[in-house]
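Hi all, long-time lurker, first post. I run a small reading group and we've been trying to get comfortable going from sequence to structure in the token notation. Rather than ask abstract questions, I figured I'd post a concrete chain and ask someone more experienced to write out its structure so we can walk through it together at our next meeting. Sequence below, copied exactly:
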Amino acid sequence: MGEKSAQKKQYIREVARRVFMEKGFKDVTMKDIVEACHISRGGLYLYYSGTQEIFLDVLKMETQETDDVFAGALSRSATAADILELFLCEQKKELLRQDQTLAVATYEYAFLANRQEGENYLGARFQEAQRIIEQLIQLGVRNGEFVCSDPKGAAGNIMLALEGLKIAARTMGVTEEAVDREIRYLLHGLSAGARGDSISF
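-- Answer (accepted) --
Happy to help. Here is the structure in token form:
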């Protein structure tokens, strides 16, 4: 793909992301994206065959952006506790800007649009994040930053709690204070006597 085509595809992804944030997944049509991008229908079909393909590409773009944030932290020789804190801070930002996330669209994709593939996608993303957190906790234990006898269980608890907060944010609303309290609670068991009481969000 040439540079101009790559730029056009990137533009479509960025505009489509805003459309999915606003309307979710199930209600978005190719016409919606054509109108938002101000391009012809044929121009859109040069790059994508349907909304599902666009949405998956948007999700990949978001994953890459998140990876870039953590790559920057790793390049600065951050500690395991620093990286876990960064991860939780990014989760907090997402929780507090629910109208500007793909949370609803992602759940709709999983449960309504393409159930089997959607579940596989969400499950794989969840397991990958849990695996990374588990490795961070193991590293933190080795370095004396964390105290934890079950890193895998702790990582699972963190991920399940975050998923619960995401659902609560969409259905009931959550305050910044409530998010901070939950995150502190999650970290308290890991960082007892090491760093936990000094972490602030």
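A couple of things your group might point at:
The CA atoms of residues 168 and 174 lie 7 Å apart.
Residues 193-201 have pLDDT under 50 and may be disordered.
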